[in-house]
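Readers of this paper often ask what the protein records in our data store actually look like. Such a record has a labelled line for the sequence and another for the backbone structure tokens. Nothing more is needed to write down the fold, since each code stands for a local backbone conformation. The remainder of this section carries one protein's record, kept here as part of the documentation.
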Amino acid sequence: MFKLTAEEQRELEQWAQSRTLPAGYVFRARLILALAEGKSYREIERSMQTSAATIARWSTRFEQDRLAGLEGRHKGSRPRTATAAVQARVVRRVQQIAHFG
């Protein structure tokens, strides 16, 4: 169970009800709010359809870094770059369409 400051409570409630934030933020906010309400892992697993490992991960991150700990840490994949071969194929295809189009 967490003790939330009034500011953290307000912020998490806004996140939890947001329709514009990424779904991950909404999920994490609801999870932390549920923990702060004293709900058990089992209750949260069932109601949020998640695992104990996920609850533990976000609980630990919140304890360590508070709201900042709820931000995603996945940097995503690097943008793909077209190789010379792919670029040549695209140019040929565009030329074919322009010629026969």
The chain has five helices and no strands. The mean pLDDT is 88.
